[in-house]
Amino acid sequence: MTTDPLAALRLPIVPIEPRPEFADALLRRIEARPGPLDRQTATIRYFVADLDASVDFYCRLLDFEEELRPSPVFAMLYRGDLRLLLSVPGGAGAVHTLPDGTVPQPGGWNRMTLQVADLVSTADSLRRHQVVFRHDIEAGVGVRTLLVEDPSGNPVELIEPTSGYHERRNT
Amino acid sequence: MSTVSVRYIVDDVDAAQKFYVRHLGFQLDMQPSPVFAMLSRGDLRLVLVAPVGPDHPGGGSRPMPDGTPQHPGGWNRFMLQVPDVDASAETLRRDGVRFRSDVISGVGTKQVMIEDPSGNPIELFEPLRPEARLQDS
What we know:
By secondary structure, chain A is an alpha/beta fold.
């Protein structure tokens, strides 16, 4: 049996788990292709009936800041990394009206979830301002939650984490 | 790290999480039960929940106190910035994803609205002016 003089220098072959996402990302980088989509900060669009009332609600009661209000049918707000776009549907230009004439409406159940430090005091303050509650404070898994409505009836969920479960590790 | 959290109601959590991972670049962070999954994409955390009964421990998708159930759909949505909305739309169309609208030009963005398997809207946009552009965080 002949011995390979370079054997000691060779790296051991280690079995690795096949990871298609990793392979795809690597291939993309080698071929200098862009990813499927940019990784960016988060934006949400809500449809509202009354822009002034909505901007007031989000800024006064939920700590948003007004960034832009270039027209009576559009405003851009920020809260930390969250950018919230408020659009009044069916107005001039009507960019959001679908080709078949369907006009977007406020409401539904999909919502932003805002973390607050003290859910009880937030709930008290919202109640004092006659905010509509869909449900009062409830216990969930890892969080306590509260579901309120903005002036147009859009849901906004407020949460207070009750355990480390909800905190995502840093990436 | 995700700092913004959005909750979407879906009919089928497994089908939904696969859709977001496969087509929209999300990462699955956890799926500890058949009615709950947590995904992330940059600063956005997306929580997918299926409607549950009033006695379920998970609070996010129980019916309201008056019995009103939660359901997918509506018009409010999160938006994902893409470098070329036409190219993204073409890819998604090829993959059989449902569209609510075709690519349209708004004031600050070119945008298109698609649907997840439960019919929830997702808006993809390409900024047309600096105020509309999101920065990498």
